[in-house]
Predict the structure.
Amino acid sequence: MPARDASAVTRLAVFAPLESLGRAETITRRLAGAISLGLLGDGEQLPSEPELAARLGVATVTVREALGELRRQGLIVTRRGRGGGSFVRAPSPGEVTGHLRARLADLSVEDLRDLGDHYSAVAAGAALLAAERASPEDLRRLEDARDAFGGAAGGEAQHRADGWFHVEVAAAAQSARLTREEVRLQTEIGPLLWLPGADARTRRRLLREHRDLVQAIAAQDGEGAARLARRHVTGAFERLIELHLGLVRP
Amino acid sequence: MTDRLAQAAATGADVGRVFDAVLRSLRRFSAGASGAVRDEPAPDGGGQPGRGALSALRAGALAVIEEHGRLVSGSGFVAAPGLLEDAPLWLEWFHVVGDRPPEPLVLDLDPSSTGFYDYTRHPWFRVPERTGGPYVHGPYVDFHGTDQYILTMSAPVLDGPRFLGVTGADLYVRRIEKSVLPLLPPGAVLLNAQGRVIVSRSARHVTGALLRDLDIGAVDRDGAARARPVQEGALAPCGALRLYLLLRHR
């Protein structure tokens, strides 16, 4: 009986070791993201399997599974013997852009709008709570992150500084869940959001928006902060949707 | 009001004992760490010890976790910059993940790396360095490590006047609540020095909220650190760290 089978399968999942539930996939995605962002450089040696397991807080077999997948994706190469180990094989900037463009073309406007809705709900919620709860110490950290974005040179450094700024907003909201969600969304769509690039004009506007947001949080203006955060995210997705539309030829 | 002041003072003392017990363990760990660093010969027979010297501190960190297993999720020694011959920054930190025994926490301490974790910027390191006294930082969202809402306690490791580093302990806020909430009468709120709620027996002032207008300084003003009337109720110190108990007006 199918119903019974389904229930048996479900029960198996319930009692499956927590280790195996998507952990390898999470590690694969995180490392692949780090490699495509350049956080792990070409030729860099990854820590050994046991060390990675300890750092990530998972079993060695989970790490092995994740590394196997990265090997299949061509993002690492493994050499045996003395001086061996797993090494990053970073895709060239052209490959990265090509890969991201293909992914963007593959998504629909509805996908992108929905991602944007999700992101702006998180960002606006975090900004609202940050305005209620940020202490002077939190504000100093926000200002540091805002200034780091202003001083960042190069697309990659800007991307990182921008990510840090938004994580600090969520942390100032005192919410571990919103902070984790912010980090997760950045990992998922951060590289796509930066695909259109930021010319000097866009960069000035982003900097101004960050400044306004910090100001609203400092003024404890929750509604203002939420509105600014929402507009900030909506703007980024508008640029992304424009790029998507340009990729899909009529 | 006198009754409320007395009740606030007594509750504050009870709550203070919970944190002071952890602080005592940390101070013991600090004394042991100071001895271990001092007595260890340098790797090249010169003046400074190497990273290897710190492996002797493992037992001290594990003892802090063991003694306060219900409260403490991680503990370790964090070296002052330049203390060690063979690493500019180093920490020997252990943390508990799930039901497994404590594992070493490995962070990126390479200043040239993009994922560099610069602990010298964090208040739990900076304040003991500056004041020579213990410190409690948070509650805060620890997005560099545990991804949880935590409190970090730290104590300096000194060799005479020389600052060698700090010992520290991470406490999950949800575990603090398990230990502290039973001690709180209705209307009682445990706060940090900024007026941030850590544990509360009031649904209107939940964990993470900031009581901006509360005059925390009232308790420390004359150096006597005793219960004081404030506009919101009675405010009392909680032990040796800058933690406070507010007993709200009924």
About this structure: The beta strands of chain A are 76-79, 85-88. Chain A touches chain B through 25 residues (CB under 8 Å).
